[in-house]
Amino acid sequence: MFSKVLIANRGEIALRVIRACNELGIKTVAVHSTADSDAMHVRMADESICIGPPAGALSYLNVPAIISACEITGAEAVHPGYGFLSENANFVQVLEDHDIKFIGPTAEHIRIMGDKITAKETMRNLGVPCVPGSPGGVPTLDEAYEISDEMGFPVIVKATAGGGGRGMKLAKTREDLEDAFFGARSESKAAFGNDEVYIEKYLTLPRHIEVQVFGDGKGRAVHLGERDCSLQRRHQKVFEEAPGPCITPEMRERIGKTCADAVANINYAGAGTIEFLYENDEFFFIEMNTRLQVEHPVTEAIFGVDLVKQQIRVAAGEDMWFKQEDLSIKGHAIEVRINAEKLPNFTPCPGTVTQFHAPGGLGVRVDSALYAGYTIPPYYDSLIGKLIVTGTNRPAALARLRRALGELVIEGVDTTIPLFHALLDEPAVQTGDYDIHWLEHWLEAQETA
Q1: Residues of the chain with CATH 3.30.470.20
Q2: What is the mean pLDDT of residues 152-165?
Q3: What is the mean pLDDT of the chain?
């Protein structure tokens, strides 16, 4: 086992990793920008090192500074959390070159899954069902028309190096395709330095279902069920739950085994999430995230497995502590993402938190780096906390979520808490009868009401 781990991240996920390390008896090193000198992850770690100015590119994405921090502190391993360098294959390679262990999959697996076309081809060859689409990148508008006409509209143009909803443009009709094609290329070039795009059939009323997998890097892997993340705004998830309200045990076993077998066949190590669009009882692969997900707590809640501890143990060379037959679902869990944003436009709202009170009680978990007096900086993602609740079934979890939201106090900045109060009154949310477009349509209706 490692004696010291550096966490190359910030905020609530850095705290999450620090807590797991503490329980394993591992010393921790926090890195931080000058804007995060007073951040909670800096206070809770055993050691901390400033690695640069506020801008992420000069601090949390500064690979030489992170390597130097490892060497100065003697950290043997790096946990990347999510975002920043968590899916950067070059970073993993640099760590390996310096004999520092990356707590996650290999650089090769990150590269394969980081390119959407290669990922789709790999998964198709492993027996995972995929969305109909172009076999590779689409370099010209003429080819885009040819492929789209053959598939039929609507289609969606996607960046091969995309993520987080960027580099994605919908073409509902043939007349929309030119703007979508060049718009996706331009956005992808600006965001990822790569303007290659591909085209997929656009499913009209799908749900977003993702399967949590975990491999030991030695040819053995398991799945930990699915999460439904269909409530999204601009391709960003806001409400996640497990198990999925529309997934039967038979479907879960079928798609879960398919995913576990796929990652076992490539000797995948650590946590990963295989994401699908689900429509008419069919699953269509869209991407694999080779890291811990923001919404991992709902899976932990219903399976009783600490995914971060398991990541660390496998990276240290230990065997997985569980087999598929050891894993069973208990209850229902829901997570809502609390952002420092001003409604109704979801404008980022940095500032000083004057009051903070986290809800408690049975089945309530809060992952947050907030404290009264903390100043939320304007340089990073607006996510400031995650509220996770667990109940014996979905209605019980929804009731607990309503109660916990009523106890949660964050003052001094605007947050998205009122959004969830409103959503819990909606019949579609109460029954789980929605798709990935439902929330945006609902928000549009609120603006015109």
Answers
A1: 207-448
A2: 84
A3: 95
